[in-house]
Amino acid sequence: MIKSKTKVERQLKNKNNPELVETIVLAKKNPKWVEVASLLTGSRKKRRNVNLDELEGIPSQNVVVCGKVLSDGEISKKLKVVALSFSQKAKEKLLKAGCEVSTIMEEIKKNKDALGVVVLK
Predict the structure, then answer these.
(1) Total-model pTM
(2) Considering only Cβ atoms within 10 Å of each terminal Cβ, which end of the chain, N or C, has fewer?
(3) Phi and psi for 55 in degrees, rounded to 5?
(4) Cα(first)–Cα(last) distance of the chain, in Å?
């Protein structure tokens, strides 16, 4: 369930990480990215951490992870992976496999309409 913008705004006041705050504000301003803002304002425990082997089984080419991408497993197909953060090893493995990696903030600026994007919850 997507939170209201008012609730997102209230929960945003509790965040201390400047990069996270900037990402949430940017996502909140774009109607197509409100779901991502809603997920990011929740507690850190509820954010989704995804291993590479989980990304392998996703049918979409553009994946948004509202959490961290971890390096457990291997990836063989080319994806565009957008995440809040990446472990160093995961980023290396993704780039080695020919995948495109970027942060959520960068993707919101490039793809304001969230075309072809699948958000992992």
Answers:
(1) 0.91
(2) N
(3) -70, -30
(4) 10
